[in-house]
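Reagents: none. Just compute today. Egl1 protein.
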Amino acid sequence: MNTHAVQVTNHLCGSPPTHESCDGNGNPVLNFHPPLFGPGNSNTIDTEHPFNYSVQFQEHIDSEGSQENQLVALVTIQQGEKVVTNTMANGALNGMWPQLASGMVLVFDYWESSDMTWLDGASCQAPSQCSGNKAQVSNVHIAMNA
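Predicted 3D structure written out:
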């Protein structure tokens, strides 16, 4: 996450999961950008100040019992303002639902590259590294509704 945009992307992998069997570009791609998210009070979420961010994985079963309606909702809240983006009925997300249901590892990733393919492509073409700038992640909560 940076001050100008957030992108969350699912990378479905085949079995066994290897670099070659994973969708490097990702699907779906969910993102926040100005005027909803960015530095300055002209944005709904002003990234120059603390904000709460959550990712929710929700299972929806339709009237015929189909579970092909998995939902990912990204919610950002700051001083009473809320921004929500979501996707539903995505094949790649539905394909990884069993792994989500059995538990996954939470990963915070913080790095950069001069060519930006780490964000919008399948692989980096230039050396990548952390910028060295500090990021603060606090108040992390993991909740599961049974």
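Residues 6-104 form one domain.
Action item: order primers for follow-up constructs.
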